[in-house]
Amino acid sequence: MTVNLGLVLEAEYAHPVEKVWSALTTAEDIAAWLMPNDFEPSVGKNFTLHGTPMPGWRGWANCEVLELHPPHRMVWSWVAADDGLKTKATFELTRLHTGTRLTLRHEGETDATIAKLLSGGWPARLDGLTVLLAHPE
Amino acid sequence: MAAEATRDSGGRGGARARSGPPDVFHAIADPKRRRILDLLLGGELPVHTLVDEFDVSFAAISQHLRVLREAGLVTRRIEGREHLYGARPEALVEVHEWTARHREFWQGGLDRLGKHLDGQ
User: Fold this and answer.
1) Would residue B108 count as lying in a domain?
2) Where do the domains of chain A lie, and which CATH numbers do they carry?
3) Does the distance separating the beta carbons of A20 and B117 come in below 8 Å?
4) In this structure, is residue B57 part of a structural domain?
5) Which of A15, A114, B17, B90 has the fewest CB atoms nearer than 10 Å to its CB?
């Protein structure tokens, strides 16, 4: 197994890119599929996503729009914990014959370095980790 | 020689807050520390071998080892006059958990986005 540190998710929707883009960049839509927010589609805009506190999460995320390239790419900075660990969420839309593919990446600030570390031989040593993950305490 | 202490609980050194995962992130953010971990993957090594590998002082290597040890990424064993350091990759579990938690969160979001789009 490998430990994925750069989180990448893909989804395909049977809707045109413009429609998906609109749902990603309109506050009311974001509220419907993600969380209530004060998002505005402009670079540099700071906004907050308000969720429900749960174990491991304080319940809100402070974000900033870092990049906005309609209708294909949007990047948010993302600070979800009091420790201030800054992460980055990237949304990318690809036009398909059948609709739109959304690729979401969520990466920690040190992600590339972790990946580098892992490529340096850690995976071979991760058998114990696999067991640990398969049988949590 | 003082008794082995697995964690430095005293007030020396930088007073970083001890809450949550960033310790591991912080520890591996430094290229020299990653290189140390790489070397330790091959098995336990004494401090002087690590010092020889880098063009820095013993004190500098000790400091890096301390950060790694506090993050749980390396272990220290004292054998006679030698301090032997070893890698402990299980510590990366924290990073994995961070990823798993976010994966679940985003998967839920993307599923809801699909339903939202279908309903428009």
Assistant:
1) no
2) 7-134 (3.30.530.20)
3) yes
4) yes
5) B17
Q: pLDDT per residue over A36-93, tens digit each? A: 999 999 999 999 999 888 666 678 889 999 999 999 999 999 887 665 567 788 999 9
Does B9 map to a domain? no
Structural domain for B80, as ranges: 22-91
User: How many domains, chain B?
Assistant: 1
The ipTM value here is: 0.74
- Cβ-in-10-Å burial (0-12, 13-18, 19+) of B65 comes to buried
- How many C-beta atoms surround the C-beta of residue B25 within 10 A? 22
Show the low-confidence residues of chain B (pLDDT under 70). Answer: 1-23, 25, 29, 93-99
**A8, A75, A17: which is closest to A41 by C-alpha?**
A75
pTM above 0.80, yes or no: no
* CATH code of the domain covering residue B74: 1.10.10.10
Interface of B with A in 50-89 (CB under 8 A): 87, 89
Contacts of B25 in chain A (CB under 8 A): 85, 108-110, 114
Alpha-carbon distance B59 to B62, whole Å? 5
Q: What is the DSSP string of B77-111?
A: EEETTEEEEEE-GGGGHHHHHHHHHHHHHHHHHHH
Residue B101 lies in a domain: no
Which residues of chain B neighbour A110 with C-beta distances below 8 Å?
25-26, 28-29
